[in-house]
What we know:
Elements: H1 6-13, H2 43-51, H3 55-60, H4 67-75, E1 82-85, H5 99-110, E2 116-120, E3 140-144, H6 154-157, E4 165-169, H7 177-186, E5 192-196, H8 213-216, E6 224-228, H9 234-243, E7 249-251, H10 262-268, E8 273-275, E9 301-305, E10 312-316
Parallel strand pairs: 1-2, 2-3, 3-4, 4-5, 5-6, 6-7, 7-8
Antiparallel strand pairs: 9-10
Amino acid sequence: MATPSPSSSLLLEGRPPGLWPPPEWKKKTKPQAVTRDWADLPRDALLLVLEKLHQVDVLRGPELVCRPWHLAARDEPSLWRRIDLRLSHLPDPSSVWRFHEMGCAAVRRSRGSCEAVYSEGAIDEEAIPLLVESAHLLKSLRLINCIWINDRICYNISHLVMLEELEISNCGVRKFSSTCFAVGYSCPHLKRFRLSSSCFIKRPVWGAVDCEVEGITRMRGLRSLQLFAQTISTTGLAAILDSCVQLDSLDIRHCFHVEMGDELMSRCSKFEILRLPHDSTDDYDLEFSAPDMSTESPRPRRMRNYGDEGGAFLEDVY
C-alpha cells in the first residue's frame, strides 16, 4: 500500500498544503530592546531619582552620567536643603580622604538654602564659614567625628542665629568653651545641645574643669542637654540647672566629676529623661572608650592666638 504524501495527509486533516509547518511551529523572534536616552529624562523625574539616593552617592556617581544629570545634581539647591553625609554611606573606605571635599561641595550646592546638616567627618573648618550663607534658615547642625574642627568655629557659628539644635560629638579631645559661649549669646532659639567626647579624662581640681559651663548657662531656652564624658563639676551642673529652667531632658553619663547629692537629685527628679554619670551606656549611640581616671600626669595646656581674627584659647597639647 502506498504511503500518503505530506500534502495528502494535510488534506485529510483539513489543512491546505501551503500552511506547513503550522504557524505555531514557526520560531518567534524577540522584539528588540528599546534603548532609553537617560539624558532626555524630564527634570522632575530626574530629581525624584536623585532624591532617593544618599547624597554621598549623588556626589560620587549619578552626576557623571551625562551633562543634564550633572547640572541637576549641581544646580538644584532643593537636593541639598538637608545635608546628610555619613561615613557609613561611603561604599569605598579608601575614598574617605575626599570626604571633606564632599562636605564643602554639598554646602556650596545648597546656595544658602540649607536647613539641617548631619555630618560624620565631612565638615571641616573650610565648610563651616560656607554655612553662614544659610544663617537665616539653618536650624540643625550636628557635627560627629569632625576631627578637623576646633574652637575657632565660634567666629562663624555665632552667625547661625536660627539654630535650634547643635551637636558637637567626638570631634577630637579639644575644648569648645568659646563656641559654647558664642552660641549662648547668639542663638536664642536653641532647644537641644549635645557635647560628647569619646573618653572621659579626669582632671585635678585645678585643671580644665567647667570650661563650657559659662556658655551653657546662657542657653536659657534649652529643653534637652546631653554632656557625655565632659569635665563639668557638681558646682557647674548646679549653675546650669539654675539658668536653664526649661530643661526636661538631662544626660550627664560619664561626667564623673559630678557628685549627685540629695539636693541635686531632688532638682533633677522633675526631668522626663535623666541619665546620671554612672548610668548604663547600653543605649548610647556613639563610640567611646573606658574613662581615664588617673590624674598623675595631667595633659599640658597652652595658650594659642588665632591670627588677625583676634582672641586666644586654652588648648590641650597632645
